[in-house]
Amino acid sequence: MYRLATLAAATLIVAAPAFAQEPDAKQIAQERQQAEIDVPELVKVLDLQPGMTIADVGAGGGAFTVVLGHWIGDGRVYATDIGQRQLRVIREYADKEGLKNVTVIEGAAAATNLPANCCDAIFMRDVYHHVTAIDAFNKSLLASLKPGGRLAIIDFRGRPGSAVPEGVPANRGGHGIPPEIVADEIKAAGFTHVRTMDPWLGDKRNAMFLVLFVKPVPAVGLQQIARADAKIIDDIGKYSLQQLQPARAAVTSAR
Questions:
Q1: Which of 64, 192, 212, 224 has its CA 20 to 30 A from that of 58?
Q2: Are residues 152 and 238 in the same domain?
Q3: Which of 180, 101, 191 is nearest to 148 (CA)?
């Protein structure tokens, strides 16, 4: 199942500050249990390797941040939230776990506040359906990723008749969001849609889905790489021929 209803409120970091409620010990324990299940699969989807940099945007109680912090090794995990209490809880959680590779950043409704081009991957879980400044926030996600970096949005469809959060477009269909709308909005910011996993983790009882995106590599960058590769090959070829001449002469003399 997706994060329990009681936990969802603790992870709403990009809506109005009124949603920023401090997670209690029970909620954090539930989130940690779920993180231990999700993270191994998330690592595969995001093509993560130890030493990379990843951001947990909407870190809530910090359980996903902590589990990833243990996994990523000498890499870096950024954890963002807009609630001061959540930020404190995440810092304390990471300190308690002895993690020195976690950086906690205060986010904003219209921006991640992450450094530009800092991340190999970013994920948002139970958060995107609360984003209000959609265009600005999604462009901020794009700016935070390295070219070729991956973005995973994990969320759930709105229950019919449920109230749409304040400030969020009415097209969500309730408290939640359809994966098709996620795909359209994120693509509009410049991302490429890779695939949608619905349901997430392959469990039909799981109401959650995952939509995966990649930040395109600029064409000019690819052209520069191709030119550099061609020059290296050309230089190696010339160098090799020059080096072979004395050897060839020695063999001819020996004959």
A1: 192
A2: no
A3: 191
Report helix, strand and coil shares of the chain as percent, to nearest 5: 45, 20, 35
On whether the CB atoms of residues 195 and 152 are closer than 8 A, the answer is no
151 and 121 Cβ atoms separated by less than 8 Å: yes
Over residues 96-137, the pLDDT tens digits come to 999 999 999 999 999 999 999 999 999 999 999 999 999 999
* Segments of 34-178 assigned E as strands: 53-57, 76-81, 102-106, 119-125, 145-156
What pTM did the predictor assign? 0.79
Q: Is the pLDDT of residue 216 over 90?
A: yes
Q: Please check whether residues 145 and 247 belong to one and the same domain.
A: no
Separation CA 138–CA 157 (nearest Å): 19
Q: Are residues 209 and 254 in the same domain?
A: no
pLDDT digits (tens, 9 = 90+) for 50-87: 999 999 999 999 999 999 999 999 999 999 999 999 99
Residue 59 structural domain = 5-217
Decide: 143 and 111 in contact? Cβ < 8 Å. no
